[in-house]
Fold:
Amino acid sequence: METGGKQTHKKITLRDISERTGLSINTVSKVLNKKPYYTKEVEQKVLQAISELGYIVNLNAAGLRSGSTRTVAIIFDDIASPFYSYMTDAIAKRFDAAGYDTVIFSNYGRNAYVDEALLRRVLARKPDGIMSFLEPSPETVRLIRRHGVPFLIFGRCGEKYGLPSVHADTEVGGRIAAEHLFERNYTHTAFVGSEAGIGVGEDRLRGYAKVLEEHGIALADTPVLYVKELGYEKVAQELLRANVNGIFCYSDIIAFKVISQLKKAGKIVGKDYGIVGYDNIQSMLELPEMITTIDVGNEALAVGGAARMLGLLQGNDEDVFPEGGIKPFLVKGPTT
Amino acid sequence: METGGKQTHKKITLRDISERTGLSINTVSKVLNKKPYYTKEVEQKVLQAISELGYIVNLNAAGLRSGSTRTVAIIFDDIASPFYSYMTDAIAKRFDAAGYDTVIFSNYGRNAYVDEALLRRVLARKPDGIMSFLEPSPETVRLIRRHGVPFLIFGRCGEKYGLPSVHADTEVGGRIAAEHLFERNYTHTAFVGSEAGIGVGEDRLRGYAKVLEEHGIALADTPVLYVKELGYEKVAQELLRANVNGIFCYSDIIAFKVISQLKKAGKIVGKDYGIVGYDNIQSMLELPEMITTIDVGNEALAVGGAARMLGLLQGNDEDVFPEGGIKPFLVKGPTT
DNA sequence: CTGAAAGCGCTTACAG
DNA sequence: CTGAAAGCGCTTACAG
Structure:
């Protein structure tokens, strides 16, 4: 099987086009970049030589000189997660349409934040902008400042970092979930999160807690469990021990696993208890309706996020959602 | 004042490190790249200056000179699809560990092949290698050859293109699915694909067809339907009209939609009919068990694909699966 | 062990 | 409208 690996392939550069056409390198460059001015005749010659020699521009070299790589970096925790991959697809598609390529970075679950080491790797590629699903660590914020690169936080609020962000109102999401559980008479509730201290998780928890209060229940008197801390088996044990009948989960994936665990104990979802997830991944994957969940306005979020990033790339710092942000909504499924 | 700190966005380059330390630029470069030889003292000085000034290397510039960008491009059809995003995560993680960053490219569903325009965009970034979930068009193959860049086809056979590939035996997958349907007495079967002419789809269909033949049934006498051609409603109509009771689908996602459509007509899956999907996405997403499906050896495929690509990057053209490839296996679910 | 020079492939002023 | 020169930030020979 041949790969062409070791063969010598002559690299075609502007110099070759220049020699072929008898024009100077910068005239050729001008035609390539459609900069004024050149004659139709020159254009013809250049385009023909390019096609004949199979010239392909080296954008790294171009970026080195021009200062812009026409590249956006996306940072996430876990691209295998449907929420991230769906969003990445929707966003990268828009970058593509605007002439930007996308480089992806992840710390592969090693860290819930963008740490300095990761940001250094990102910056070494000189992207024109960075869009991050993760929040930056404090030192990272300093590095972003110093570097002056546009940095957009996506899906989480950037206010406390003084950085631009596009996100839905997560507290409202938690509120909607809790209200729904109470409406359906699942009033003995618990919250199951990923890990404590994640900003967006805390927001959802807060919205949920407020509804509890309105019903005269203190959050402290109800289970608040984190799967990364306890594991799913222990979480299920706690839920059973507390005799909970309404569960609000940080994500659909967590909800699915909780359902599986409780099933082992003979508990039937939608009958013995109700559960609400988060993210509405079933709609992203075009799966059959599986769960009651909160949709954070996925589509609007992706569109808005891409628009905001492209705006930042042009030095435009205006918020795309001045009206108070995207509103999450409930999607009723068979689990409540 | 150089130590003042808030120098607004002055770019720090090797030149600055050189001036700060009194060493030459190439000595600094040598330390950065750990090339022999330099003294401990010099190393100390350089590392300190780098830390003080917050230097970050420009890998585009480095790549321009060295010829290697330490970058791999991944091309896919649709990163929002769980199969692709899971694989991308598993693969990119391994590239990362080997010191390569990943750039993603897609034609966003516009084309089932890597066309020339897309490959040009990829090559303009000068990746050290390309890994593609999509097969190349004929002109694209020529361009790959001419360019001499390592190009690995992932998930599909590259033999007919003369290009290296890592893939499971898809024909066996189709065979296993069909055998299972017959075993379970779903003997009046149909195939539902994505679109005609996709190599990997044809392979699955062929394996399926062979089993039919062994049971004395000609493929031509059974429905072979493509959703991109007919749409889901028409597909369901055809399935009902032919009074089918066993369905083999090209993917789990297609299977889910077919199940939804047939439900509207009152048909209960697992009772009125059996259905087998492909990809085992439920395991990737950690969803509850939802469907009988074919797992193509996802984990092994990702590990092997990454290893093969990293091998190609080092000029090593050896196949990582000399023993006849990865074997798909059946995952029994509630739909058969 | 360290440094001066050349060059990777472009684009950007600027001169004509 | 076209071209000669400089330079983006590095690494690579090569000289000392």
Q: What stands out?
A: Chain A is about 45% helix and 15% strand. Residues 227 and 239 of chain A are 12 Å apart (CA to CA). The longest strand of chain A covers residues 71-76. The two ends of chain A are 57 Å apart (CA to CA).
